[in-house]
Each structure stands twice: as structure tokens, then as C-alpha cells.
Amino acid sequence: MVKTHIPGFPRIGAQRELKFALEDYWHGKSSRNQLVDTAKTLRMQNWNIQAQSGMDFVTVNDFSLYDQVLDHSVLLGSTPERFNDGSCDSFDNYFRMARGRAPSGEPTRACEMTKWFDTNYHYLVPELSPNQRFILNPEKLLAEIAEAQQLGHQVKPVILGPVTYLWLAKCANEEFDRLSLLPALLDSYQGLLKLLARKNIDWVQIDEPALVMELDTRWQEAYREAYQTLSTCGADLKLLLTTYFGALDKNFNLTNYLPVDGFHLDAVRGGDEFIRFSEQLRSDQVLSVGAIDGRNIWKADITSLKEKLATVAQQLGDNFWLSSSCSLLHVPVDLAQESGFDPELYSWLAFAHQKLSEISLLKSTLLNLSPQADTAEQLAANLRDVTARTQSQRVHRIEVKSRVHTLTPEDGERGLAYAERAIQQQNKLQLPAFPTTTIGSFPQTSDIRSARARYRRGELDSSAYNAIMQAEIRDCIERQERYGLDMLVHGEPERNDMVEYFGEQLEGYTTSQLGWVQSYGSRCVKPPIIYGDILRKEAMTVGWSRYAQSLSNKPVKGMLTGPVTMLQWAFVRDDQPRSETCLQIALALRDEVVDLEQAGIAAIQIDEPAIREGLPLKRSEWDFYLQWAVYAFRVSASGVQPDTQIHTHMCYAEFNDIIQAIADMDADVITIETSRSNMELLEVFTNFDYPNEIGPGVYDIHSPNTPTVEQILSLIDKAATQIPVERLWINPDCGLKTRGWDEVATSLINMVAAAKILREQSLAA
Ligand SMILES: Nc1nc2c(c(=O)[nH]1)N[C@@H](CNc1ccc(C(=O)N[C@@H](CCC(=O)N[C@@H](CCC(=O)N[C@@H](CCC(=O)O)C(=O)O)C(=O)O)C(=O)O)cc1)CN2
Ligand code: MET
Ligand SMILES: [Zn+2]
């Protein structure tokens, strides 16, 4: 009989219960027991919904209080040395690793955080040392297994595979070869599997998403060694080797030959590869087909999936399993709780709960299990909804499509080269040497958020809400004047989230009330949904920018989110290429940029923090992506006169791979995050001879610590050895929305003081 399961479920809770429980605990507003209880309730609910939706296994150990990769480091006992100071117990130590501080224990430098493959989810990077030892610490895993079993569930625990774990890890000594740790790591995994075998478990899901990456022969060999070792370790257990986020491509044969009991393949991004894979399967191996999209929110077309899967299902019989493409962590929890959509849009969507039902419906449909009215009716309803979406009037706008199709290369050109633009801009802006600025957002205080919540609930009307936001902008401008910054911003108080804010205003996008997806730890985002052709009905930011500029004689930067980030951080329509959607957004932004210029805004920043993360996982697809992504940015930026200064901003990414593309974007000024890496990230700009102006971040905004003038000076000194001083800007790493005013004030005052010292020094020289 076909088995159904999912690789993982969201843990934040439909109402973000985990977020609030965590933050209350961290801020001393609730006890540890309250947090533990909330976590337990969430796990129970998650398993119940899986069981009720007909899953044959519930997934265990996908739950985490902060991050599943950090949990895995704790499980393997491979947490960094600096946390072994005995300053607190293991419960709080976990949060110290995650965020540098906890209710008890000494504050320390947290583990580094980075993007999980090409998602907007951040994991905590394992830090390994050359003589790393692994000492199993299976308490959490075993407790959660026991918890689910006591509730009467069939349990399938999930663990991260050894090779992907090493792939994600880093070592302070970059020369060190992480793969040399594999034998020791495998010893640990063998011990773990033996432990699990005693727990009345049939299957263990072992995640190896690194198998969809392009691997050199050493990493391929690591896979052979790892699974050879694990398959002969004598644990009476079956391993489901789980891959997702793409096709296996060149690792197809490698994977196929690995001695495991079953495989899970991503049949959404991996296309039809699973069919060929099924033909090579041994008769005692199972294939779990990830047919329901775990990365997007569209209702699945069950009828066409049935066609696609029928032959394989029939041939494999009991060895055919059904699943979602990847963990459902990346989609919101439950559409049924959502009241914000109109009925037509609602009928097009499926969140995590609904995806479980889709897996079940697909199974019954494939097996003709219950030819009763029930399945037939559901199938008919599904077909009606997915067909309606393809035919809906609101998806297509001829004028938008034709504007994209008549774009020419000239639409991506500024008219004059940077060097000439720079002269005109300097004439207009009259900035001092080492100009100081910030990245856009200022503290999103609870006053701002609660005003927005009251406005949403209808307790404030729009004029009252606007008045409050204007007062915030006024305060923000006055503070920047007091701190002595040279180029100001309005502070973005009116934005819940940069992407969501523009998504709310553009036609073709819709936003949800409860569509939260975990971004890191307790922080969540509500990705807007792009369902149709994108049109700007009216100016989106001009009123706020004009108001802000009216309060100061210094230039106030206009502030927009770029086309690639607006695409990358949204749920995107699947009926046309991403590049096409991106150009539609670029044109809407281009009109906004032009309107800002007309309103007297002399510098406009178009943020592109997600451009690196949009890079396809496979190198062979990079050029094509970078080509349309850079063009889309240029289209958005190129409607203005040469004397209007275009800024862009990028953060928390390795720029090495895309430095040429960054230069090709041809922004007049780029601000980037560099302070945590002590300006190392800047090296790539120097080595490349980046031609335009750069503001390397001199203030780490992810830390509550305020930088001193000396620290800032030393960072700028370092930057000045790499970038000609005429092209150097002084600014923080990123926006300040998650910080408090006290720290921001001190830090910015110090930043301006550092810039002034440098100006005096260069005058004296
Ligand atoms: N989309 C996106 N992706 C991104 C980033 C980003 O900025 N945006 N940055 C990086 C990730 N960094 C992040 C940094 C901060 C937060 C963050 O702070 N998220 C907030 C939610 C932000 C938000 O939408 N806030 C709403 C408020 C939502 C809310 O909880 N409202 C309460 C009321 C709150 C009150 O009364 O004070 C309610 O409705 O009950 C608003 O301002 O309107 C959170 O989890 O807490 C998320 C990601 C990479 N990916
Ligand atoms: C994640 S990049 C953020 C850029 C935005 N302008 C801000 O300052 O918040
Ligand atoms: Zn940023």
C-alpha cells in the first residue's frame, strides 16, 4: 500500500505561538516551563494534523526551538568551544549559541547565520575545528520520539545527513579540509542509528539536500563512503535518503547506487527525473515522490499529477510513496485561519495543512481507493479551482505584457557613464568627503507597530494613522540632523516589511494576514503572493518622501525595494518565467523612481539584498539568471536624469560569485554589509576594481553592542586601504529596524564623529 508522509512541518504555529513564547522567555516575561509547554502543544498539533490528514508516518525532530541545524550540532556534540564556559545550563546555552545571549549565562558572540540553500530561511552555521570530536547527545531527539509514540503515532524521525552537515559547516581555518572529519562523524551516526533502532522505528529520514548541488569527485566519494558505512553498521532500521530543492542531474547515478532502503526526490523542481530513477530502483527499495510543492502556495493540479505519476505508481506498487517536494517549513501554516483573501484567490491556494490533504487526495485518486462520491467530488472541485485560476480575468493585463515585450536594451541604460554622472551628482548634492548615511529603516518601535495594528483593526482611520507616521518621520529627520548625518532617510516607519509593503500596493500581488513563514529564530515574514501581471496603480512612496524632504535642507534618499528582491521574497506565480514577472516589477518601480525624481528627490536607493540568494543552485544556470536580474534592476533605475543618484544595498551574502554582476548593475553608490567580517567582504570589491562609489558597513546592526569611534575608525582605515577615499561612504551594515533608539543614537553619533575626524585628517594631509 502506498505510504504518505512529509519531510517536515512548520513549527512556528498558525498564530506564531512559538515566536511569542520564545520572546517572552528571552525577555523574562515567562518561565521556561511555559515555553516548553507551548513547544509540546505545537508538536502535538502538528502530529495530529498529519495523522488526521492520513499520513502513514508523523515526522519527528523537524521541530526546533530555534533552528534544526543548530539542533543537529547539539545532537552531535559539535558545538563551538566558546560556549563551554559553564556559565549556564544547556537550555540557555542553546539560545546563547543562537543569539549570543539568554536569560542566564554570559553574553557571547553567537554562531554565524546564513541562508538555507536558496530559501529565505537562515540556519546557524556549524563551526568545526580540525580536531573536532563528536559526542552524541540524543536527549531531544529521543524525547520527541517517545512523545509522539505515546500519542500513538507511527514515527519517522528526520536527521540531517552527514555529508550535507559537513557541506554546510565551516572551519575557522579555511585551509582545513572538512571532509577529513567524515570518519569520526560517521562513527557518531552509527551510534545514533543503533540507538534509534531500539526505539521501535522502521524508517529514518536522512536529509541530504547537498545532492542537488554540483559536487566535485571528493564530495561524491564522501557520499559513497558515508552510506556504505551507515548501511553496514548493523542497526535494524531503514534509511530514506531525502533530497530536495532540485534535480540530482549529474549526481543521479551516484545517488542511485547509494546502499539505502529508499529515496525521496523533489518531483517539482526535479521535473520527471523521478521516472527514470524509478526504473533503476531495486525491488526492495522505495521511492518517495515529492509531488506537492513545498516551496510555493498554489493549489496542486491533482488531475494532471495523477497522469504524471500513474505509471510509476503502478510499477512500484507498495514501494511507491507520496510526499511534498521538501519540508513544508517554507510555506505558511493554515489557509483556513486566513480571512484576508477574497474568495476567488482563496480558492487557488494551499498552505501546509491544505498540502497534507492534497497528498491524501492524490493518493486516493491514484489508487482509486475510494471511488465513492467523496474523492470524486474533491477531485472535481480541485480541477474546477485550478482551471479557474488559469482562465481568470484578473491574472492577465495586456498593457503590462506588451510593455515588457517592447523593452529594449536602451531601457536599461542611464545615458551617461558613471564618471560623468558622478560630477553632475556632486554639483547637485554638494556632499562632504566621507559622506555619512544610513540604509533606510530606523527602529520599528512598539508604538509604531501598535499604531499599525490599531489601523488594521479599524480603531484608527487613515488620517489618524498617517498623522502618526508623519510624526515618526519628523522625529526621525530631526534626530538625523542632530546626529549630523549628511544624507538622510525617512526611516520607513510606514512599512511592516519592505517586500510586503510594496506587495500591498501593487496590482498583481496580494498579501495575507497570517501567512507567516519563519525567517530565523523567532523572526517571521509574510511573503506576498504574486498571482497576476503587475501594475502600479499610483505612486507608492512619493508622499512620504516628499514630506520627509520638506523637513530638511539635506538630501533625503528615496527608498524602494528592487525588482529581484520583490520577486525572490514573494510567492511567485508558476505560469510564466520568473524573468518575465521580474521585468513587470521593474517597470512598476521605474515609474516610481521617475515620480520620486519629479518630486525633487535627488538620491534614490533601490535595495537588492536578495540578489545573491536568487542565484540558482546549479552554476550552469547562473549566467542566464544574472543576465535578466541585472537587466531588471537597470530597467528600474534608468528612467532618471544623470544627476539623480541611484543607490543600491546588499547584505549578508558572499559577493565573490556575483561581483561582475554587481558592477554591471551600475548603481552610483552601493552600500554593503562588511563589519562582521572585519571588511573581508570588501576585498572582492577591491580585487575586482569596483568602479563606482561604495559604503562598506562600519556598524554591525545585528548586535546590540554599540561601536566606539575607534572601532569605526579602524574599520574605515581598513576600507580606505582598499577603496579610493573619493568613492567611500560611511554607513551601517543594514537597516536599523530591529534595534532600539538608544543604541542607534550612540552608534550613529560615533559614526559621524569618525567621519569628521577623517575629513580633518585629509584636510591636514
Ligand atoms: N521579507 C523579508 N525577508 C528578509 C528580510 C526582510 O527584512 N524582509 N531580512 C532578512 C531577514 N531578517 C528579518 C529581520 C526582521 C524580521 C522581523 O522583525 N519580522 C517581524 C515581523 C515584521 C512585521 O511584519 N511586523 C508587523 C507587525 C506584525 C505583528 O506582529 N503585529 C502585532 C501587533 C504588534 C504590536 O501591537 O506592537 C499584531 O498584529 O498582533 C508590522 O510592523 O506591522 C517579526 O517576526 O516579528 C524578519 C526578518 C532576510 N529576509
Ligand atoms: C534587508 S535589507 C534592508 C534595507 C532596508 N532599506 C532597511 O533599511 O531596512
Ligand atoms: Zn540589508
UniProtKB/TrEMBL annotation:
Gene Ontology molecular functions: 5-methyltetrahydropteroyltriglutamate-homocysteine S-methyltransferase activity; zinc ion binding
Residues annotated as binding 5-methyltetrahydropteroyltri-L-glutamate: R16, E17, L18, K19, K115, N120, R523, C524, W569, E613
Pfam families: Meth_synt_1, Meth_synt_2
Binding site for Zn(2+) 1: H649, C651, D664, E673, C734
InterPro entries assigned to the protein according to its UniProt record, in alphabetical order: Cbl-indep_Met_Synth_N, Cobalamin-indep_Met_synthase, Met_Synth_C/arc, UROD/MetE-like_sf
Cofactor list: Zn(2+)
Annotated positions binding L-methionine: I439, G440, S441, E492, D607
EC number: 2.1.1.14
Residue intervals of the Cobalamin-independent methionine synthase MetE C-terminal/archaeal domain: 434-756
UniProt-annotated binding residues for Zn(2+): H649, C651, E673, C734
Co-factor binding comment: Binds 1 zinc ion per subunit.
Keywords tagged on the record: Amino-acid biosynthesis, Metal-binding, Methionine biosynthesis, Methyltransferase, Repeat, Transferase, Zinc
Metabolic or biological pathway: Amino-acid biosynthesis; L-methionine biosynthesis via de novo pathway; L-methionine from L-homocysteine (MetE route): step 1/1
Catalytic site: H702 (proton donor)
Positions contributing to L-homocysteine binding: I439, G440, S441, E492, D607
Record bears the keyword Kinase: no
Function: Catalyzes the transfer of a methyl group from 5-methyltetrahydrofolate to homocysteine resulting in methionine formation.
Family recorded in the similarity comment: Belongs to the vitamin-B12 independent methionine synthase family.
Entry-linked NCBIfam families: met_syn_B12ind, PRK05222.1
Protein's name in the database: 5-methyltetrahydropteroyltriglutamate--homocysteine methyltransferase
